UniProtKB/TrEMBL annotation:
InterPro entries: Cobalamin-bd (IPR006158), Cobalamin-bd_sf (IPR036724), GlmS (IPR006394), Met_Synthase/Corrinoid (IPR050554). It comes from Pelotomaculum thermopropionicum (strain DSM 13744 / JCM 10971 / SI). SUPFAM superfamilies: Cobalamin (vitamin B12)-binding domain. Gene3D superfamilies: Cobalamin-binding domain. The keyword Isomerase applies. Heterotetramer composed of 2 epsilon subunits (GlmE) and 2 sigma subunits (GlmS). GlmE exists as a homodimer and GlmS as a monomer. Pathway: Amino-acid degradation; L-glutamate degradation via mesaconate pathway; acetate and pyruvate from L-glutamate: step 1/4. Residues 4-138 form the B12-binding domain. Its EC number is 5.4.99.1. This is Glutamate mutase sigma subunit. Belongs to the methylaspartate mutase GlmS subunit family. Its cofactor is adenosylcob(III)alamin. Keywords: Cobalamin, Cobalt, Isomerase, Metal-binding. One of its GO terms (molecular function) is cobalamin binding.
Length: 141
């Protein structure tokens, strides 16, 4: 078992809204996780590359510009191709444009392969507790 759980964080695509990912990164670090913060405007491929290099256990993505669905088409499949079959995928934020039903967004991103999907007003500590629960279920914590 590894000494520390590694979590990759960042804002996906050309989204420059970085405050949410900075908050998540800081709290994860305070909770004892090894955090690799990629920051804003991170291409999906960069998440995969860094997850491979660091043997990451989870990827936490944020997106507030509403285009994450386009950015992340085939992302889970690319993770699997890269040997990241077991990496946990989390995303939160404003995941669609225009007014729409949050449940539909959640279902859409789960179909895309994300383990957890959070609305913009999600409680960061609750998301971290979800991560701990998911890691325990995989025998990593």
């Amino acid at each position: 078992m590894k000494d520390k759980i590694t979590v990759i964080t960042g804002t996906v695509g050309v989204d420059a809204h970085v405050i949410g990912t900075k908050i998540v990164s800081r709290i994860l670090g305070e909770q004892g996780f090894n955090v690799v913060a990629l920051g804003a405007q991170t291409p999906p491929e960069e998440f995969i590359k860094v997850a491979q290099e660091t043997d990451a256990d989870a990827i936490f993505m944020s997106s507030l510009y509403g285009m994450a669905e386009l950015d992340l088409q085939g992302f889970k499949e690319k993770c699997i191709e890269a040997g990241l079959n077991d990496v946990l995928l989390y995303i939160g934020g404003i995941l669609g444009v225009m007014k729409h039903d949050w449940k539909e967004d959640e279902e859409k991103f789960k179909r895309l392969g994300f383990d957890r999907v959070y609305p913009p007003e999600a409680d960061v500590m609750a998301a971290i507790e979800d991560l701990k629960q998911d890691l325990r279920a995989k025998g990593k914590l």
